[in-house]
Amino acid sequence: MRDIVIDTETTGLDRKVDRVVEIGCVEIDDLMPTGSTFHQYINPLHPVHREAFKVHGLNNEFLKTKPTFKRIANKFLRYIEGARLIAHNASFDIGMLNAELERLGIEPLKNEVVDTLALSKEKRPRGKHTLDALCSAYNIDNSKRTKHGALLDAEILSEVYVELCGGRQFGMRLVVDNDDQDEVAPVIRQRPTPLVSRVTDADRAAHAAFVATLGDSAIWRDYREQPEAQAA
Questions:
Q1: What is the DSSP pairing of strand 172-177 with strand 84-87?
Q2: I want to staple 9 with a disulfide (CB 3.0 to 4.6 A). Which of 13, 22, 129, 169 is the partner?
Q3: Bridge-partner residues for 177, per DSSP?
Q4: For the chain, which domains are there?
Q5: pLDDT at residue 149 greater than cutoff 80
Q6: Proportion of the chain above pLDDT 90, given as a percent
Q7: Which of 56, 88, 129, 148 is catalytic?
Q8: Residue 55 contacts residue 18 (beta carbons within 8 Å)
Q9: Is-catalytic flag, 148?
């Protein structure tokens, strides 16, 4: 399924008066990054609170040269159309975005939303649930995160989300051994139809000739002669 990991930075915490100043999105499909991102700084037409500036470092002078939310709204909505949205403390980010849309007379977002904060509390009830704490728990590099930034945070959160979902164990499931529940064994999903070999008869002959030059003790002989031994 197409997921968009999303983060915002704002002028403050009150959605009734504060505005979005940055949106960062990272696309993942079946828990794999696609390389597609959306990133936009926004002129909030509203001063950045001092405490918010300490968090993200975006000041009024920098932001006044950027487009307003009205100018980028359609582009943003096209990017996230049909995707599931993944956000940390999603009620804040989605609430701020919906407030911006409401000011423009646009309906609120109807995308399915997954809150990684709630997911973390479910998966790790005894752990800490900040993004930095989750990076530490899952050994994810967040050394570049000296200040909050929407795109960087979305990129980091995409890695955290994959780990919260069990990691990238594609085509595999974990089976618990009743004798030792600390050990797990992967069960690999087989293709219904094997792939056609790309190795030609000429390739096999050339390889056999090469192995013949290596001497009787060459380990390659074991692999080359194994099928014949099995057939016998």
A1: unpaired
A2: 22
A3: 180
A4: 2-164 (3.30.420.10), 201-231 (no CATH)
A5: yes
A6: 62
A7: 148
A8: no
A9: yes
